[in-house]
Design goal:
With 308 residues, this protein is of the alpha+beta class. The strands form 4 sheets. Strands 2, 3, 6, 9, 10, 13, 14 and 15 form an 8-stranded antiparallel beta sheet that branches. A 7-stranded mixed beta sheet has the order 1-4-5-7-8-11-12, with no helix packed on it. A 3-stranded mixed beta sheet has the order 17-20-19. It has 8 helices and 20 strands.
């Protein structure tokens, strides 16, 4: 664990807990090394998150009833209470921020299983990037690109959240698949229960159980639908679907294939296809689809180009 981040987290906590920001010791520590200031600024920005500040302010407003005759001391006490509330909420996140993230990345066509510090195991599809932080009070991961299957170690005291710009999934201990693609985050639960939330501050969430699938897109959630958790999936080289766009299928093929596939016509990409597809035989697959759906496949500059 980085000592500079630990010290920065301590200074953030101390300065959140009081109004006086003038501290010679802090100034001397910050000036001693540019890395100190950079670490403090990153953690301070987290503590000053607008959504957190607004939520805490609203909470204080609801719980405080202003009465005539209040003294300056009472007002000051209210301000200190608000600071304490913010500190209590922000502290677990600050502790997590001092944990150096573990980063994992796969190349197209590569599937790899990794173990996290808490005993959880993650299988990454090709062309996938994942960052994970396992802290004393929280566990968080960020799916940067691609798709991954998570088998999360149970720990009721440390919920595990996997986030992406489109939404997030929150669990205690379960097995599920999470995929980013086509502007959405799709969750498929294989064991246990997972809460799916779209991106945004205050949104409707849904709890999915084993055999249910849903996605978050544009701040909204789809309706859950059933799937067979025991069926073959991308981990064994298969994709079975009752209907996806050609563009979405190509996106998944590109994670499995070392040869890039490009669609040069947006209308063609919106055409829907269905069936059971072998993901590791991408060229044979797109040529067979071309015969059925009437489009062309040509090789160009090391890629397969699909056109009408």
């Amino acid at each position: 664990m980085n000592r500079t981040r630990q010290k920065a987290a301590m200074w953030v906590a101390r300065r959140l807990d009081r109004e006086d920001g003038d501290d010679q010791d802090f100034d001397a520590w910050r000036a001693a090394d540019p890395a100190n200031g950079a670490a403090f600024d990153r953690l301070w920005a987290t503590a000053q998150d607008a959504a957190l500040t607004e939520a805490m302010a609203l909470n204080v407003q609801r719980r405080s009833v202003r009465r005539p005759g209040w003294t300056t001391i009472a007002t000051l006490a209210g301000g200190l209470t608000a600071c304490a509330v913010v500190l209590a909420v922000a502290w677990p996140q600050l502790q997590l921020m001092v944990v150096d993230p573990a980063r994992f990345e796969t190349a197209p066509g590569e599937i790899r299983t990794v173990a996290l510090a808490d005993g959880s195991r993650v299988t990454l599809d090709g062309a996938t990037r994942l960052e994970a932080r396992i802290g004393a009070h929280r566990r968080e991961a960020r799916l940067v690109t691609g798709e991954a299957f998570f088998d999360i170690a149970h720990d009721a005291a440390r919920p595990f959240t996997i986030s992406a710009p489109e939404g997030s999934a929150r669990v205690l201990g379960t097995a599920f698949d999470l995929e980013r693609g086509d502007g959405r985050l799709e969750l498929s639960v294989h064991r246990g229960k997972v809460r799916l939330a779209p991106g945004g501050l205050i949104r409707r969430t849904t709890d999915l159980t084993a055999g249910q699938r849903a996605f978050a897109k544009d701040g909204r959630l789809s309706r859950p639908r059933a799937f067979d958790p025991s069926a073959d999936d991308w981990r064994s080289g298969w994709l079975e679907t009752d209907g996806v766009t050609l563009a979405r299928l190509v996106e998944r093929l590109n994670r499995a294939s070392k040869t890039p596939i490009v669609i040069d016509d947006a209308a063609l990409g919106r055409r829907r296809v269905a069936g059971r597809f072998r993901l590791d035989e991408s060229e044979a697959l797109v040529r067979n689809l071309a015969l059925v759906h009437g489009f062309q496949v040509r090789k160009q500059a090391g890629s397969l180009v699909l056109s009408r």
